[in-house]
Fold each of these.
Amino acid sequence: MGEQIAGKLDFETLLCSFAASIPWMPFVNLGQTPINAAYLMAILLWGAFVLRRGRALSIPLTPGLILGGAVFCWFAVGAMMTGSIRTALVDLLHFGNFLIAYALILASVRTKALLERMVKWMLVSSYAVAGFGVALSFLVNVLDMQFLPRIMVDVLGSILYGSRGQEMLIGYGLEMGNWYRDGQFRTVATFFNPMQNSEYTMFFLFLSVSQILVRSTLLSRRTLTLGTVVLALQLFVSFSRTAYFGAVAGGSGFFLLLLMLGVVPRRQVIRFALIAGVVMALFSPLAGAYAYETLLSIGDMRQFSNAGRLVAMSAGVLVWMHHPWFGTGFGNDFAMAFGNLDISQPNFLESLVMPYIREGLLYAKAVVFSELFEQTNYHSGHISLMAQLGLLGSALFWGWQFSWLRRAWLFATGSTDTFLKALGLGFVGGWGTFFVCLIIDDNLFYPKYMLSIFILAALCEVGVRIKREGRESISTGGK
């Protein structure tokens, strides 16, 4: 009976649908806490998988899964020991769901055909998300349909954006929310804010570009080119300094790495870079100036956002200095920068960042000096991890992440299969921008973004297994 049910469910199609639908998944609001529908779907998929496999259930204990479990235990124990388990619970649920999905991919994806199918579905889904975002930007900014964002909030509301989604425009007004900058609508597509949208976009942009560079046959050349252009356009119309910073810094590093190591023919990399440069040059008279000004504004302390972020980051540094090794405990929102800061006395903070904070406070009237000691959102994933986990916990976390990176790079550079090579290179490039963006933003536990990264990391682990078993050419068994 169980096998008949599992057969009708077509488990592989359900698995691909799960991976592709992550950015489209609604939130279920429990009070003021948005719970992503991915939890329920991942658990249901595990049930279908168990029915399908019967007693032959096995989960490969890869380094990524073992280290991920260790990081989760560190998070949970730290939260319990510091009495912050209640405030950490939502993020722990998110993290647990990421690991559940990660383990599901490792256990259920056994063939190259299914691996290719999942990546294809996720790429096409990212193109659809980008198309939705670009279309919204065109309708609002070019055709001046200013009523559309309010309809999005009123009609879609918390379904796509979570329980706080309606606050974005209703709470702050059309000209002041995260969805607007200098009168320009910033595309959010199916995400909560432009930063999360643009960081998701960057990850899949690298996957798409890598498919083109390696000349993979996963999708047609026309589809890959069109999809890459739409992803790049969505990245631009997010008007996100985080996205521009990540794209310039992460992208430059990635292409430089490809040129230095020769993993992809250098002529091909240079040709692609030249074509991209010409396209950007032709596009710049229309919109490039705005992107350039946005990128330069990253260090401008006259902007409230920059000044506020610097204050927040400084507070995180102070918290970490009081708890350097073990941190304050995961989810400990009650930890603050202790003591009174006397700016007449030279100290670490004054010598490094206080001049910038002073300048920023002159222009950012909403940032009062006391916020330096009350700030708990540090606006930097790296600083947040250091403050909450300390040096030891942060080293464990990034050691786990680098194990992903290393394995993806090794199988990409050592594989003769174009699809596997493109998958590994794309993951390396996307992960690089993720690391860079965490310097000035913190989306570590946003499901629609991080769950996609976890699944792609697991698929890279599957690629390692396929390569090791010498089955690079196997493309059967997808169903």
Note: DSSP finds 20 helices and four strands in the chain.
Amino acid sequence: MAQRYQTRFDSFEGLETVVQAIEGFSQERFLASLHLNNRRTAMDLAALDTKLLGAIANLQEQHAQLLDFSLTFNSQFVTRNNHYFNSAHQLLRKIHTGVTQMKHIYKRFTPNSNAAVPASMQATYTPPSIYERSSLGIAPYTRPMFGLDVYTPEVQRLCMDMARFFDVLRESLLVCLEVIRQEQYIRRDPNQCKELYHDFKDENYLRIRKHINSIRLNTSEFSPDHNPAIDLRQCCATEEEFAQKAFHDQDFDDVCSLATKELVEEAQRGIFSIEELQLFAEDRDKIMKVRYIISHFDEYLEPNPRRKNVPADYVACLMGWCDIPIKKNLAFVKYFAETYTKANGQYKPPSNPAVNVKKRSSWTGIPEYEPLISQWESVEIS
């Protein structure tokens, strides 16, 4: 059956609501809530106070554990608790005694908190938060006629201990809110997310480095069909995009498998990038030669004091000499620009449209380019 109120609050917004409710607690609200149920005996109040004192002692210990957890939580790309996919849930588990006791208190001091709604409303009824509807927290209440000092010792002790309990719980919930704010801030920074992923990969490398050459990637463990993290990485255009989406949102073991896969692939590639291997059909000797040519490209240019750009026809000629497929022409022009710039070339690399205009079906037999091609073919990389 559906409930009149809901007591869950394991979200950022829910945490804010509960903190607001706790901060609204006062002696007057306590007494107003107490009067809503006059059937409580002194023994009932004493029993509740005993439970509350035990909860305070446990919560103080759990608060220290929460503080320790909060120091490292956002420095980890994923944690072993990430299968919950909910940071608020993970943090609240650290102070579970306080959370459980608070829910119990609000149920005890809010009339009809467990009453079922009519069956006809079950499909559409959304239970409101008990923390918003309870006079113990945020809701309007009737001020009591007398102060706490006229009530029995049991009532006075319960009120004071409840205030102590809420003070400790409030401090813990504020830690939770701050950790989640930090997490949201990190997720907005793609570079920081990528750095955290690289740190995770480095740690994973230390665990597998002795076995990296014996790991086979043709198993289901490294298949995107069986690993959500690997599937997500393949769907993302950049490592930064993946890191933002995966930060605190993928299973720890799945990300370990992804990191292992990438580390093995990097070991197999050696000094070559994925882009180079794809562009030159994994011809490593050719890659080394083209790298050298591009890095020394200024040496192949005729002296010209007015020159500002690398001649587009020279780049088009190199692309033809490398036998780059048409569908990879843009990738080659980009690779040329990046490699040339990284080598501190003194001119501006040509744009892709400029290179496209200069393309030919064949460069052989053209006197202007034969010496250039001859120099490229004679390049030797030791």
Note: The mean pLDDT is 88.
